[in-house]
């Protein structure tokens, strides 16, 4: 079809395009290789294959925004189809007689059955329509409807190029490309239909009725369609659309360690400074994250800190990283890579706003880990003497001297146990089957101690052999590590490991999801390999084995349940609390955000220690409203309860009920309080005070 001169021009342009594309990918590889070593990945080919299948099935994008994700299918499969279509179009341009129209006839490859050609034409035609529809919706969303989810809060740090509309320009360029490319291809097919309509090309046939056949039209349409590809390929390597290629690879190289195990502050086998100050202090994998980022803001949608009006957007962090690399690589600011990350990609205030809830990582369709960057930045800020909140400072001070964040003397840790009506074994002095790691809040906070006593009474009633470590227990260090205080974390781990060394036990049980997480996932790195259970799993088993029985079914209660981040999203502990609630006979109402999509209470990652309280609706307040809205869908006279299984949640949500003025409408209770009532463990006066 193409003339000789056209073929020569095309080959020259294709070579130039390939050169720029290869250069683009080379800059990506160079930049990624400058990152620090990441934890070793095992069986990478299998991981990449798995990721390829997930991407092909579009599994990861359907975690949120179902309707938009469905529309995105048209784009995704349309572009895949077009990779083949473009190849065929190039062949049509270069091989005389290779013309796959007219009811399956072609003059070059006569061995091709007509059915194959017709099927190809039908798929190409239908996918062209799907592509045009999807891209039109996406463009309308950004430029006409101006979906707020694609924007950032005013207080979020953004690269000047983003503020100047860089992302919108990117989207416009690629949107216009897709429309021009597909429309030109459809028109080109329409111009070929000299013999009339082809039933296997309904859209092209429709256009042919309007425009008729045209040899010049075929050439112009071919050049518009394929010429655009030569421009867009190198452009993709320099724009946010790099995610087309890097996203699936990034997903295949995503973290393999358990979610609850942080990467080390200093990469294994190196003597580098801990944490990250500059972009290339991040591991290579997290430099790659910025290229993989779709810039979809799904992570921002689920971020409790962003909801609370804090200047944190996990998505802006990734996008800023990308723009920083771009201006250093292709722009005139290579020096900006020498500026601290807190001046280029995320403000220090935003860094200290993260609750480490993992929601951003869990929702990300391409396996990005913005939260891990934040923790690395905290690690270095602490070492460099950066300014930190006075409340956090006090908590860390107390943890270093007392082993707890509540400024309590070590000996007071076991005071609640000494007040019990039966002796609570000291596991460091006599063997026990179950070592109960109580945690700071459950040991010291007067609002939570009654629940702690109830756990002990229920264990006692079930004949569950347990002991605690009294003053030998120290804070497990989960939140200390997430604040970035790696040295103090290691000190606490060492102290606890020494205490465990004095004790004889089969497994550890804990009432605190934060302790549960680090004991289960991080202590093994320091030699502490134990079976660790959260109390909900233990209680569910006691019921299922008949060691606990429901004497008083709780059918008068209407409850909802909040999944704590460190039990649920981090460790998959979704089922046991729900099984228990079912056994207790309550009316259970699930909130819309549950299990993997649970909304953080706002306390984690050291936020509960913060001295300064920011204005705005707190995540816990929003969650209480969500519970009440859920209850409203099923109105009746039953007592409405908000059930938690984390001591910090007890505090956060009890406060939120008060500050939202909902006392009397909903009560916050630990699951243990319901279990106590159902199995007939006497509720002490102090517990009633908590419950009311
Ligand atoms: S971990 Fe949670 S709070 Fe932190 S950035 Fe991610 S979503 Fe936001
Ligand atoms: S980090 Fe992931 S979820 Fe967030 S904007 Fe990028 S691709 Fe989307």
Salient structural properties:
single chain; 692 residues; mainly alpha; Fumarate Reductase Iron-sulfur Protein, Chain B, domain 2; Rossmann fold; 4 domains; 5-stranded parallel β-sheet; 4-stranded parallel β-sheet; 30 helices; 9 strands; disordered C terminus; binds iron/sulfur cluster
* Strand composition percent: under 5%
The shape is elongated
Give average pLDDT, whole number. Answer: 94
**Bound ligands, each once:** iron/sulfur cluster
Low-confidence stretches: 687-692
Euclidean distance between termini CA atoms = 83 Å
Would you report the number of β strands?
9
User: If you compute it from the alpha carbons, what radius of gyration comes out, rounded to the nearest whole angstrom?
Assistant: 30 Å
> Helix share of residues?
40-55%
Compute the number of helices. Answer: 30
Secondary-structure-based class equals mainly alpha
- Biggest sheet layout: 5 strands, parallel
Widest sheet: strand order? Answer: 1-3-2-4-5
Number of domains: 4
């Amino acid at each position: 079809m193409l003339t000789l001169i056209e073929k020569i021009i095309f080959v020259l342009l294709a070579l130039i395009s390939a050169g720029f594309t290869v250069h683009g990918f080379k800059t990506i590889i160079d930049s990624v290789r400058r990152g620090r070593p990441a934890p070793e990945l095992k069986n990478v080919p299998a991981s990449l294959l798995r990721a390829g299948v997930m991407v092909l099935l579009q599994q990861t994008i359907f975690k949120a925004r179902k309707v938009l994700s469905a529309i995105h299918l048209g784009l995704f499969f349309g572009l895949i189809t077009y990779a083949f279509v473009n190849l065929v179009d190039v062949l049509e341009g270069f091989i005389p007689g290779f013309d796959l129209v007219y009811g399956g006839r072609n003059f070059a490859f006569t061995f091709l059955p007509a059915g194959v050609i017709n099927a190809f034409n039908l798929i190409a035609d239908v996918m062209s329509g799907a592509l045009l529809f999807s891209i039109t919706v996406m463009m309308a969303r950004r430029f006409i409807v101006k979906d707020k989810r694609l924007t950032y809060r005013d207080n979020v740090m953004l690269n000047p190029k983003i503020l100047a509309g860089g992302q919108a320009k990117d989207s416009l360029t690629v949107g216009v490309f897709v429309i021009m490319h597909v429309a030109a291809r459809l028109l080109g097919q329409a111009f070929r239909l000299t013999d009339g309509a082809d039933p296997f090309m309904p859209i092209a046939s429709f256009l042919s009725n309007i425009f008729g056949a045209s040899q010049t039209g075929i050439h112009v349409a071919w050049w518009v369609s394929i010429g655009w590809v030569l421009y867009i390929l190198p452009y993709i390597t320099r724009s946010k659309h790099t995610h087309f290629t890097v996203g699936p690879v990034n997903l295949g190289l995503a973290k393999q360690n358990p979610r609850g195990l942080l990467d080390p502050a200093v990469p294994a086998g190196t003597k580098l400074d801990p944490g990250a100050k500059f972009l290339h202090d991040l591991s290579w994998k997290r430099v790659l994250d910025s290229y993989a980022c779709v810039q979809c803001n799904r992570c921002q949608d689920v971020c409790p800190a962003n909801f609370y009006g804090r200047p944190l957007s996990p998505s802006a962090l990734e996008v800023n990283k990308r723009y920083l690399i771009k201006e250093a690589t292709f722009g005139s600011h290579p020096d900006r890579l020498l500026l601290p990350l807190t001046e280029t990609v995320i403000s220090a205030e935003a860094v200290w706003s993260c609750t480490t809830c993992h929601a951003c990582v869990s929702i990300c369709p391409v396996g990005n880990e913005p939260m891990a960057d934040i923790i690395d930045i905290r690690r270095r800020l602490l070492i460099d003497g950066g300014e930190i909140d006075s409340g956090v400072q006090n908590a860390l001070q107390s943890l270093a001297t007392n082993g707890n964040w509540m400024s309590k003397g070590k000996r007071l840790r076991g005071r609640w146990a000494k007040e019990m009506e039966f002796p609570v074994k000291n596991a460091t002095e006599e063997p026990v089957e179950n070592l109960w790691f109580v945690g700071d809040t459950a040991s010291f906070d007067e609002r939570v101690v009654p629940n702690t006593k109830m756990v002990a009474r229920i264990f006692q009633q079930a004949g569950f052999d347990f002991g605690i470590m009294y003053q030998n227990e120290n804070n497990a260090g989960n939140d200390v590590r997430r604040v970035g205080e790696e040295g103090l974390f290691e000190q606490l781990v060492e102290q606890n490991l020494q205490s465990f060394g004095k004790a004889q036990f089969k497994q550890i049980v804990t009432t605190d999801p934060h302790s549960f997480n680090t004991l289960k996932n991080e202590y093994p790195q320091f030699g502490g390999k134990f079976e660790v259970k959260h109390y909900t799993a233990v209680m569910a088993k006691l019921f299922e084995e008949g060691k606990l029985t429901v004497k008083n079914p709780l059918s008068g209660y209407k409850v909802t349940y909040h999944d704590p981040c460190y039990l649920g999203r981090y460790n998959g502990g979704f089922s046991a609390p729900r099984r228990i609630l079912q056994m207790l006979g309550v009316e259970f109402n699930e909130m819309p955000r549950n299990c993997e999509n649970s909304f953080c209470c706002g306390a984690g990652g050291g936020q509960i220690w913060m001295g300064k309280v920011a204005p705005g609706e707190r995540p816990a307040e929003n969650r209480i409203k969500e519970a009440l809205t859920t209850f409203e869908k099923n109105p009746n006279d039953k007592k409405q309860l908000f059930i938690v299984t984390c001591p910090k949640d007890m505090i956060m949500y009890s406060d939120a009920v008060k500050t939202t003025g909902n006392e009397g409408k909903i009560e916050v209770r630990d699951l243990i309080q319901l279990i106590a009532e159902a199995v007939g463990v006497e509720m002490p006066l102090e517990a009633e005070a908590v419950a009311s």
